[in-house]
Write a structure and sequence with these properties.
It is built from eleven helices and eight strands. With 325 residues, it is mainly alpha-helical. The protein has two domains: 173 residues, no CATH class; 99 residues, no CATH class. Bound molecules: zinc ion (3 copies).
C-alpha cells in the first residue's frame, strides 16, 4: 500500500474513532480527520492518473508561469497553499473525473462553519460529515480499485450504518414536503438545509400544506424554526453553491441575487447550466423577471446592475443622474 493511501485510511479511521467517542471535545477532530482522509484519498485518485507528476503539485492551489529556460513556459506553485475539498471537485473536473461536486462544497462549508463557531449551533455536524463523506469515499476507493471493507473494516461498517440511519431520517423529513406545489421544480428538488446548523433534516410543520408560501419548517437537529421564504432562499443557495463557487472564482457576479420585487435572495441567473433544459432566469418565489434596458445607457438590466431606487436605470446611470439627491 502506498504511504499516501495508508495515510488516507488512517485519517478516516481516526475520524470515525473520534466520532464514536461521542465526546463533543472530539467532534472537531472527527471532522478534521475525515476531511484530511478525503483529501488524501482524492490525491491517491489523482496520482493514479498522472503517476509521474509531483504529488504536492497535484493539490497546489496557485500557480504562476515562469520561463522554462528553453524558450517556453512552465508553471510553478505560487504558494504552499493547497486546495480544499471544494477545490478538489474542480480539479477532478479538470482531470475528467466525475464527482459529486455539491457534496464536496457542502462538506467544505460544514467544516468552515464548525471551525469558526462551535458547537451547540451544529449539533449534528459530525454525523452529517460522516454521512456525506461515505458516498464520496466509496466512489474514490472504487476508482483506485481498493476494497474499503477490507482496508477499513470496522470503521467502514460504522460509516455505512451512520449513513443509512441518516438517509432514513432524511427521507422521513422529505416526505413531509411531498404535497407542496413548488413554483419551480428546482426548488422542490434542491436540498433543504437549516440556516443555523446546515442540517438537511428539516421537516414541514404542517405536512398537509400544499403552498410554497406556507411551507414553514423546523430543524430536527437543532430545533430552529425556518419560515417558508428562508427555506427557499437556503434551498436555492445550496442548489447553486457549487455553480456559484466556480462563477465567483472565474470573476463572475454570482448566480443567485436579491430579488428587486420581493426582496428575497431568490433571483436566479443560471444561463449556462450543464444541462441546458435547467436554464433559469427570474425569482423562484414571486416569479419576477427583470426585462429591458437602462433608460439612459441602454445596457441590459440585470440583478447585479439594477439601480437600487430607480429600476428603470442601471446602477451607474442612477448614480450619475441622482447623486446628491
Ligand atoms: Zn438546525
Ligand atoms: Zn421575488
Ligand atoms: Zn445605464
Amino acid at each position: 500500500m502506498s504511504p499516501l493511501l495508508d495515510n488516507a485510511i488512517q485519517s478516516i479511521r481516526i475520524g470515525v474513532e473520534d466520532y464514536q467517542a461521542n465526546d463533543p471535545a472530539r467532534a472537531l477532530s472527527a471532522i478534521r480527520n475525515l476531511h484530511a482522509g478525503l483529501l488524501l484519498l482524492a490525491k491517491v485518485v489523482l496520482v493514479q492518473l498522472v503517476p509521474n507528476a509531483d504529488e504536492d503539485a497535484l493539490i497546489g492551489a496557485e500557480y504562476k508561469p515562469v520561463p522554462d529556460g528553453e524558450g517556453g513556459l512552465t508553471y510553478v506553485r505560487r504558494s504552499l497553499r493547497t486546495i480544499d475539498l471544494a477545490g478538489i471537485g474542480e480539479r477532478f473536473k479538470d482531470f475528467g473525473i466525475a464527482v459529486d461536486q455539491a457534496t464536496l462544497v457542502k462538506l467544505s462549508r460544514l467544516r468552515n462553519d464548525v471551525e469558526h463557531r462551535y458547537t451547540e449551533e451544529a449539533p449534528d455536524a459530525v454525523r452529517q460529515t460522516v454521512a456525506g463523506a461515505f458516498p464520496l469515499a466509496a466512489q474514490m476507493f472504487q476508482r483506485v480499485d481498493i476494497d474499503p471493507v477490507e482496508k477499513l473494516s470496522g470503521a467502514w461498517k460504522t460509516m455505512l450504518e451512520i449513513r443509512e440511519v441518516y438517509e432514513q431520517e432524511l427521507r422521513a423529513c422529505r416526505e413531509t414536503f411531498e404535497g407542496v406545489e413548488w413554483r419551480y421544480a428546482i426548488v422542490g428538488q434542491a436540498p433543504r438545509e437549516c440556516p443555523k446548523c446546515r442540517s438537511e433534516l428539516l421537516e414541514q410543520m404542517d405536512p398537509e400544506n400544499r403552498e410554497q408560501e406556507c411551507a414553514d419548517s423546523t430543524c430536527r437537529s437543532c430545533g430552529a424554526r425556518v419560515d417558508a421564504g428562508m427555506l427557499v432562499e437556503n434551498a436555492i443557495a445550496a442548489h447553486y453553491s457549487a455553480a456559484e463557487f466556480l462563477d465567483f472564482k472565474h470573476g463572475g457576479d454570482g448566480v443567485v441575487f436579491d430579488c428587486p420585487e420581493c426582496g428575497l435572495h431568490t433571483y436566479v441567473v443560471d444561463t449556462e447550466p450543464e444541462d441546458t433544459s435547467s436554464e433559469l432566469v427570474g425569482c423562484v418565489v414571486c416569479e419576477h423577471r427583470i426585462e429591458g434596458r437602462c433608460a439612459r445607457c441602454e445596457d441590459h438590466l440585470t440583478p447585479s446592475n439594477l439601480g437600487a431606487d430607480h429600476p428603470d436605470f442601471c446602477d451607474y446611470c442612477e448614480h450619475m443622474l441622482f447623486k446628491g439627491l
